[in-house]
Amino acid sequence: MPVQLDLIKKLRQKSSASIGDCRKALEEAGQDIDKAFLLLRKRGMEMAEKKQDRVAKEGRIEAYVHTGNKIGVLLEVNSETDFVARNSDFCRFTKDVAMQIAACNPLYIRRENIPADAAKEQHNLDEFCKQNCLMEQAFIKDPSITIKDYLADLVTKIGENIVVRRFTRYKIGE
Fold first, then answer.
1. Which of 4, 44, 90, 151 is 20 to 30 A from 61, comparing alpha carbons?
2. pLDDT, tens digit, for every residue of 16-30?
């Protein structure tokens, strides 16, 4: 049975995936949009993992100052080309991540960045990572996904390796 065009449009709006990818995912999921969305996300994560080894030396520095001028963030996000660094989706991602850092105050980018002695002190390392590792935090604009999921979706959409390289968060009095 052919996939209905309105289902493809809905999935495309939800996922930003290509029409062909949406059609294929809907066919595999029996025209269930939620299952198709999960299939697309899984494929996106796989694609992002394959691109991790590619060198990302271009990018963008994002500066965010929270209302009231009490919290500020400087963030470096790298891409493979300067063309992608000027892409509106890439710029939106950097702004969103800077805002995430201001709001949630992560201590590390990834789980691998936690010093071994600090990791040993934790009773529940997974919970500690969800609170203190940027990539494992729930995205403040959509708590159903993590920053890692948001990044994987962007990598899938743009087709280049993108890396959150480093950040600094400033708060008055700290």
1. 44
2. 677 777 778 888 888
Name the strands in the sheet holding 58-65, side by side, starting at the edge strand that comes first in the sequence: 58-65, 71-79, 162-171
Q: What is the mean pLDDT of residues 71-78?
A: 97
What the block records as the tokens of 41 is: 């996300």
In this prediction the pTM is 0.73
Judge residue 81's burial from the number of C-beta atoms within 10 Å of its C-beta, 0-12 exposed, 13-18 middle, 19 or more buried.
Answer: middle
| Fold (CATH) for 58-171 | Tetrahydropterin Synthase; Chain A (3.30.479)
The backbone torsions φ and ψ at residue 59, rounded to the nearest 5 degrees and listed phi first, read: 150, -150
Q: Is the model's pLDDT at 62 over the cut of 70?
A: yes
Distance CA 136, CA 75 (A): 17
Domain segments of the chain as ranges:
5-51, 58-171
pLDDT of residue 95: 98
Dihedral-angle region of residue 120 (phi above 0 means left; psi in -120 to 50 means alpha; beta otherwise):
alpha
According to CATH, the superfamily of the domain at 5-51 is Ubiquitin-associated (UBA) domain (1.10.8.10)
Residue 167's Cα: distance from chain center in Å? 15
Q: Tokens 């660094």 map to which residue? A: 85
Q: In DSSP terms, which residues pair with 170 in a beta bridge? A: 72
